[in-house]
Design brief:
The structure is a single chain. This protein is an alpha+beta fold and 142 residues long. The chain is built from 6 helices and 4 strands. It has helices at 2-22, 33-43, 57-65, 70-79, 90-95, 126-141, and strands at 46-52, 80-86, 106-110, 116-121. A hairpin with a 5-residue loop joins strand 3 (106-110) and strand 4 (116-121). Helix 4 runs parallel beside helix 6.
Length: 142
């Protein structure tokens, strides 16, 4: 009986720890791109868009090592509406005409009217991604 209780308690701690970890890093918007633009307009923010492909190694590395970083999450969650779209999905294919890509990952900053403000291609470290976001915000606030 003690072993069963200990096992249950350990499982609860593991689940609580995993849940807490999910809250660090960038929190990506769950909805369509159009809904993200509307949210950006309502909050007077810029959309940060990660255009990725499921097979892309650098995309996976950014998801694993950069987007989960606490400092990156704190900065991007406070300043942007964050969107992550597989560019080979139905929604991604619809957006390709307006926002064509040359490489994966492509990171875009888009205003609430849908105008692309800046683009960066390829892997970025946490420090590079924060610096990139800070530079974009300086341009937007001028």
């Amino acid at each position: 009986m003690k072993k069963v209780l200990l096992l249950c308690f350990t499982a609860m701690l593991f689940c609580a720890g995993a849940k807490g970890q999910a809250l660090t890093g960038i929190q990506f918007f769950n909805g369509t791109f159009e809904q993200a633009l509307a949210k950006a307009a309502g909050e007077n923010k810029v959309v940060f868009l990660d255009a990725y492909a499921s097979w892309c190694g650098p995309c996976k590395a950014m998801s694993r090592n950069v987007f989960t970083n606490k400092e990156v999450g704190d900065f991007y969650n406070a300043n942007f509406i964050n969107v992550k779209i597989d560019w080979e999905s139905d929604e991604g294919e619809k957006l390709q005409a307006k926002y064509p890509l040359r490489a994966y990952p492509t990171l875009m900053y888009i205003d609430a009217q849908g105008k692309r403000l800046a683009t960066a291609e390829g892997y970025r470290s946490p420090e590079e991604l924060i610096k990139q976001g800070e530079e974009l915000l300086k341009k937007v606030k001028k």
